[in-house]
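Anyone have tokens for Sulfur carrier protein ThiS adenylyltransferase? Sequence:
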Amino acid sequence: MLKDQDFLRYSRQLLLGEVGPEGQKKLNSATVLLCGMGGLGSPAALYLAAAGVGTLLLADHDLLQISNLQRQILYKTSEIGQLKTEIATQNLTALNPNLLYISLPHRLEGKWLDQSVSDADLILDCSDNMMTRHAINASCIRYNKPLISASAIGFNGQILVISPPWEHGCYACLFPSQQEKKYNCRNSGVLGPLVGIMGSLQALEAIKLLCGISTLSIGKLHLFDGISLKWRTLHLNRNTYCPICSAS
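Reply: yep, here.
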């Protein structure tokens, strides 16, 4: 049941026919897991909290460093040295105190990852390494949970949405190797607005999925060139022999 304050807070999205009161109720009752509270997780969490997603599971084991502040817009200079998940909980509460924020300040792997994925309705992969991305993907397959994965480096970003029944395959079908890429944002750099764009798109796709809004993004890898502002789209095909999703 939406309260009077809800109608005021979410009035602009309630005006959208695709959302309306029923969509807002779905958002309020949803649980979203954000795997990583860095450059992608920061804007994604801000927009999901602002939209009224009822429970946000905030997973990250890192402490805030000064080098993070160029792109991780959820944090402030005075918070350097603190746990990101704790700061994120405080700052998101200040934005929207009507939601539940759960800090998960440990590395998402093994039982911690599986428990967190099983507790969520939707998972956002905002991590920064291949091993974690593959682990998140495998856990989502095990627990039959939709996944929105994004990454960014330099001036380039990408976003992938996959969902049960995995007709288009999974992350491992597209990137079978778990070997770390030669170039990453730590050794090659990235512009802050670029990760902001990709994280915001993760939030957009999450809201669409949670509200039941039709999306054409499932099973497609969208590639963004931040210099030319051009997009390329690749259609994902399921690998019949994929060790992760072929048996699902």
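Residues 4-235 form a domain with the Rossmann fold fold (CATH 3.40.50.720).
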